[in-house]
Every structure is written in structure tokens, then in C-alpha cells.
Amino acid sequence: xxxxxxxxxxxxxxxxxxxxxxxxxxxxKIFGDFTAVxxxxxxxxxxxxxCLLGGSGCGKSTLLRMLAGFExxxxxxxxxxxxxxxxxxxxERPTNMMFQSYALFPHMSVEKNVAYGLLREGVPKEQAMxxxxxxxxxxxxxxxxxxxxxxxxxxxxxxxxxxxALIKQPKLLLLDEPLGALDKKLREETQxxxxxxxxxxxxxxxxxxxxxxxxxxxxxxxxxxxxxxIVQVGEPEEIYEHPNSRFVADFIGTVNLFQGRVDVxxxxxxxxxxxxxxxxITKPIEGLSAKQTVxxxxxxxxxxxxREATSAANCxxxxxxxxxxxxxxxxxxxxxxxxxxxxxxxxxxxxxGEPITWHEDVFLSWNAGSGVVLTT
Amino acid sequence: xSLSDTQNGRTASLLRKMGFSGRGLVIAVPTLWLLVFFLIxxxxxxxxxxxxxxxxxPPYSPLFVEGPDGWSIKATLSNYAYLLEDSLYIKAYxxxxxxxxxxxxxxxxVGYPMAYYIARSQEPKRxxxxxxxxxxxxxxxxxxxxxxxGILKANGTLNGLLISLGIINEPLIIxxxxxxxxxxxxxxxxxxxxxxxxxxxxxxxxxxxxxxxDLGASPISTFFRITLPLSxxxxxxxxxxxxxxxxxxYVIPALLGGPDTLMxxxxxxxxxFNNRDWPxxxxxxxxxxxxxxxxxxxxxxxxxxxxxxx
Lengths: 376, 310
Description:
- The structure holds two protein chains of two kinds.
- By secondary structure, chain A is of the alpha+beta class.
- Chain A is built from ten helices and 20 strands.
- Chain B starts with a helix and ends with a helix.
């Protein structure tokens, strides 16, 4: 009881009754004969850090720009905190945006960049400067107030852009690839920094990214986009463990996909025949008909690799083609009889015994519940 | 290939030993050009400006004179002193600078919106518009200025149009006034203002304008706070390209201006060809050069500063 109450408060999308903060209804955007965003509907709740994830050209940035007011939807409506924003120009929306290029004004100091929004709003200069100083401290740039943007490193510029976008205390902050221009190490640090700031200010964030790792780390929920449509919305775990399509399974992380036909459906297990790995045993899912074509998505870490055959529900022989040692784990590429290459990752838990290496004959095994059966 | 490479390398090192290098050669050509066509003529004019006028051929005294004690230099600053004595020259300088200044501002006011519009339009429209801007260069400058006489004169095209539309009853007297000079200068020098402005504005990052709008600025506020300051290097470059040649402009005031349009180019012409006073004419030319160099140096400094900021 108490548990579900907390869940409803921190994960309002689970309750089903909570009022969404941002309501996107049947939004489409058509440029000439190209449909960038195709009938997207999405509810986002207050305080969320929502990621729009997809490859380039999937429409995620266009959707973000429609929220900011830079693009007018061809059809559909957007409601932010109960207000329909159709026809409201970007300058009057309760949103602010952090641009992928940061778009810092090159002729203004850091301080002036950050204060820009407040001064345009008519906040008295002294008050604006005090709030700017506060905001610069929040992003740990207090000592850089008088610098020009080009005198800052990429990571510092990113924080100026964030401070500038946050200073007007927008109801909704839109971030376009906020970490795209940073190197890997800085990106990882900044991810947690972003979460800290978001939580301390309680602003709703919508982040556009093509980096699935970034989306997994940052977000409360992820909306995966493909060809202008949202193909799945869910918490990171849900998206990873229960993808609803081959596209999502393949896009998020690494996956081995086997296509076959439904053969025998028993209460506790089901057989898929005719895959590239022979007949496979999985847990049954509802609504399947006999002979229907399905795919089994199997994450590399769910497969175990051994020299001897095991009694697991699925056990197939293979030949180690390649091994990549990454320190904390090893990635194996194993060829099976049909010629298909299967990716297997193995945690390097202990260093006892002789590890399996190149050109060894091995067995790959997994349980019936290890994979996800996909119909699309 | 490797053989010819080594040969090339040998030739290059041989040339280097002789004091030639690729970089040196590239710089040598423009240096030579400036030396022959700018510095030497300048020195000749400088030399004449310190001579005395003679009724002879050439009509000035030589700089080096052979006397009983050998060669000596005979130079005088009296020509420069004369420029200060006769108020005509000072007036002409001021008038030239004033006309150049106001026509630069007028050209900027007309050229900026055009450059902005071209920079914001899409291809292929943009290329077409740029072509139209440089198209007048394909006809003789003199002819184009001459054509303005036909437009501006009392019974010309403009007055005819205005009278037939009933806007005015009496023809406007435009030709042979300063207004005609301004019209001619703005018309002639507009491309020199538009092209550098366009080159600057086309680089303007559209996301800066979006960021400004996103932060609550109106389009007008965005223009004055973002676009205009960032286009300052273009404004200065364009202004220099207009201001400098307009100071010394001769053809436009001679054809379109009136007898009381005082510009240093016309004064120079009169000294050389009517008064045949080469030393004073040369002094006028040198003084004008100095008068131009000073404001240009300030503009250059401002431009460097603006570029550092942008």
C-alpha cells in the first residue's frame, strides 16, 4: 500500500489517474513531401526527465522544436500545464531550450548570456545579476562570469548553456543532445550533474538523444522513435528487458535475434522452429497462433558459454570466432552451424581456471525465460 | 615517383640556399606590384609636392640641384603652408569627409536590409540576388553615372513621373546639388557595402536567433542585441570600402554635383589641369592621403576589436 503510494508519486505514469503535465496529441509535422513527425501522442508528467531516443532523422528534434515553438505542427495539439500552446510564439512559451550547439552569444560574457532571459523579461538589473550569480554557482561557474564563451572549454560552455536555459525557471526544459559535444569521460560526469540539477530544481526535462546509454542513465522514461513515430514508451528497464519490437530490441543495446515459427504452445513453454539456431524453447506469450512468424530477442549477457553441454532448455554447439577482452567483461563472437554469429558477453567474475579463448568448440545455453518473443 | 620527389626536394633546397622559398615567392609578387604601382608613384608625387612651380616642362623645380658645392636637396613646404592659408582646401577636405561620411551611412541604411534579405533567402534565389547586385559592374561606371543625369534633370524621367502622377507641380531641382551627389554615390557604392555585409550575415548562426527568441526577446530586440553586434565586422568592412573611395571621388561630383559641390577630387583636378600647379596639386593629394589614413586606421582598430569579440 505504502509502496504503491510512493510509486504513484515518483512514477505518476504508473498510476493511470495522474494528470499529465505535457500532453502531446496526434502531432504531425510534414515538410514538403517528407513526414518528419507522424501522428505522435505522448503524455509527460511533472518532474520527469523524459528522453526521446532515436537515430538521426527519426523526428525527435522536430518534435522538440515543436514543443519549443520553433516549428508549427501540421496537425495535432500540445498542452503544457493545461495551456494549449498552439500559436504561442517561442518567446512567450513557458519553455526554454538548451541547443545542441549551445548557441551561446559569442559577443557577450558568460554573465550576460545567462542574464539575457531575465533582462528581456524586464527583471531589474540588480535582481537579474544576483540570480545570475546564484545560477552560475549552481553550475559551478562562479569564477567565470566575466569570460567570453570562446574562452571556455566545451564542458564549461555546456554548463553556461544549461544555466542560461534554466534561469527563467521554465516549466519545461528542452535539451537537444545536451552531452553530444563532450568527450566520453566528461559526458559520464555531466550526466549525473544534469540529474542532480534537475532534481534540485524540480523542472521537467525533455532530452533528445541518439545515445541509448545516455538515455538509460538519465531518464525516468524513454520514448523510442523511428521514422517519425514513437514505437515504445517505458522506463529504461522496461525498454531494455521487454522491447515490443525487433526495432527497439536492436536499437537499445546489443541483441541476438532469431526468427522462426510458433510450433507447440504448452502452458509453461513454447517451441519456435526453423530458426537459424534450430528449435528454440521459450516462455509462451499470449495471443499467438500456430505457425505465426515470431522473433526471439536474446541479450548477450543472458547466454552462458561452456566447454561441455548443459541441461539448460536451450543448448547449441558453436565455435569461438573472436574474443574481445574489455576488462570487466569479455565479448565472444560465436559461430553456430547455420553460419550465424552469436554475441555473448561474459562477466569476468573470477580469474580462476583457463578462460575460453579463440577457436574453441563451445556450447551456448540459456533458459526458456531468458529471451523475449517479439511478433513485430 | 620517389625519384622525382627527391629531385623536387633537391631543387627546392637549392632554391632555398639561393634565398628563394615558396612562401617568399608568393609574397614577392604582390610586394613588387605595390612597389612599382603604389610606392614609386607615391614617392614621385611626394617629390613634386615639395617642389616649386615653374613655367617649364615639367612645370616644377627639380629636387636635386647641382650647385658649386656639389649636389644639394631643394625642398619646400610652402605648398603645404598654402593649403592651410587658403580656406578653400580646408573646406574641400571637410566637405569631402562630410559627404563620404553621410553617404556611407546612407549606403549602410539601404544596404543592410538588402544584405540581410539575401543572406536569409534560400538557394537558388540567393545566387540570383547576388548576381543582380554585381550586375551593374558589367556596364561602364561612367555610363551609369551619366544615366542619372537623364533621370534627375529638371525635365528628366523622375520629375516627369512625379508630375504625371500629380505628386508635384514644379520640377524638383535635384541635379547639380549635393542630393544628386548622394544619390549617385549611394547607387554606385551599394555593392561594396552589400557584399561584405552579406558575407558576414550569411555566417550568422540561426540557432543564436532562436536562442534569443526562446529566452523571451522580441524580433526587434533580437536584431539589435544579437544580429547587429555580430555583424559589426561586416559593417566596418563595408563602410571602409565606401568611405575611402568616396573621399577622393571625382566623377560623381563632377557629373551630378553643382558648382558649389566642393570635393577634394574636383579641387585636385582644377589644380592639375586648369591652374597647372603641379606642386600644389601634389600637396593636396598627399594631404588627402593622410586625411584618409587617419580615420581608416581608427576603423581598422575598431574592426579588429569587433572581430575579436565575434
